[in-house]
Amino acid sequence: MSLDTSARVRVTSTRLADGRELLYFDDSEPYVSGAATRRLDDPRPLPDRFAPDADGHLPAGPELRRDPLTGEWVAMAAQRMNRTFLPPADANPLAPAKPGAAYQDGEIPAEDYDVVAFENRFPSLLRVPGVSDDVTFLDDETLWQTRAAAGRCEVVCFSSDATASLRTVSPRRMRTIIEAWVHRTEALNATEGVEQVFAFENRGKEIGVTLHHPHGQIYALPYLAPRTATMLATAQEHRARTGRLLGRDVLDAELRHGTRVVLESEHWVAYVPFAARWPVEVHLVPRRDVPDLPALTDDERADLATTYLELLRRLDLYFVDDETAIPLPYVSGWHQAPARQGREDWRLSLQLFSVLRAPGKLKYLAGVESGVAAWVCDTTPERIARRLQEIA
């Protein structure tokens, strides 16, 4: 157990029946003081996920294959075909255990919780003990590079209330969620083989969400994702050419002109990016130059809790149909500095975007976007910003 005294969050770690780690992040009594502890045992009859089969073979984890045409790694995670898909309310695996009921196949043993993080039961990335992640060549063909997808995938439950959303949590609970992101970023960055930690949330059926319980995910990648690698290379080129931090220059330019700035607080600024790709897109960044969430001060984290909730409130008012606001489906992700390279050239930012371009109308990636990543925006960044400014 550990206690973050500044945010008053107690972290308690345990293991699920199959060996996966689960962590409770408590901000309410009697748990935050340690007077009581959430349920730590998991009585499900789940086999050890790393137990060898009857023939003594280790389980096969997900695999990475390198695209010989682009150099990008692609995860092959066939076991995810059987993951949970839109379960009924009485079979929600992210809900707390029902008081007095026989314990079923839920992921969280406690009858209530504040915030929980645990290893995904159906991961895209998984380090299997005893399995090397060295690059090998399939069928001895040097073009076909493959390696174990030796990373980690976690789920973060924002609330025990299945009808809630991240937008509806209290500022105190939002602060606890931030502490969970910080805690997991620090721990995963320190894990062998991890090159990047990406914390994100998918919200809404339009995004393809298969579990509507309010939750997000954290991926610890054993390589730099393509967008991250491109952003890092661009920032390093900017530093070499100007001697300055690219993220700092972008923020200063947005503040100087103000046209696309939609929200400001003491420590944070939200703006629509100059070259927005999506029908709704906002970047939220700290005023101070920091590489990742763990580098934020206590005051910056507290301010983030209220600023983020205000941004989500405005985004849920962006589209209105018959005078009724439409909750915005979105993807929101933290772009943090890589774990082991280029940290001095990186600046923390949150990117939030939506595929909804109008009530009842989605942006589908057309052939030129899906085929060659040549993006076409269906509006202009200035129009997006004006709408968010009107809402404010």
TrEMBL record:
Where does the record place the catalytic residues? Answer: 215 (tele-ump-histidine intermediate)
Q: Name one GO cellular component term.
A: cytoplasm
- UniProt lists the gene as galT1
> Do you know which InterPro entries this protein is assigned to?
GalP_UDPtransf1, GalP_UDPtransf1_His-AS, GalP_Utransf_C, GalP_Utransf_N, HIT-like_sf
What does the similarity note say?
Belongs to the galactose-1-phosphate uridylyltransferase type 1 family.
Highest taxon of the source? Bacteria
**Listed pathway(s):** Carbohydrate metabolism; galactose metabolism
**Presence of the UniProt keyword Cell division in the record:** no
Q: What is this protein called?
A: Galactose-1-phosphate uridylyltransferase
Query: In this protein, which residues make up the domain named Galactose-1-phosphate uridyl transferase N-terminal?
Result: 63-223
Recorded hits in PROSITE patterns, A to Z, give:
GAL_P_UDP_TRANSF_I (PS00117)
Q: Pfam family of this protein, just one?
A: GalP_UDP_tr_C
Q: Give the EC number.
A: 2.7.7.12
Q: Which GO terms describe its molecular function?
A: UDP-glucose:hexose-1-phosphate uridylyltransferase activity; zinc ion binding
Which reaction is recorded as catalysed by this protein? alpha-D-galactose 1-phosphate + UDP-alpha-D-glucose = alpha-D-glucose 1-phosphate + UDP-alpha-D-galactose
**Record-level GO BP terms:** galactose catabolic process via UDP-galactose, Leloir pathway
Q: Where is the Galactose-1-phosphate uridyl transferase C-terminal domain?
A: 237-341
Where are the compositionally biased (Basic and acidic residues) regions?
A: 38-56
Q: Which cofactor does it need?
A: Zn(2+)
Q: Where is this region: Disordered?
A: 35-66
Q: Which UniProt keywords apply?
A: Carbohydrate metabolism, Galactose metabolism, Metal-binding, Nucleotidyltransferase, Transferase, Zinc
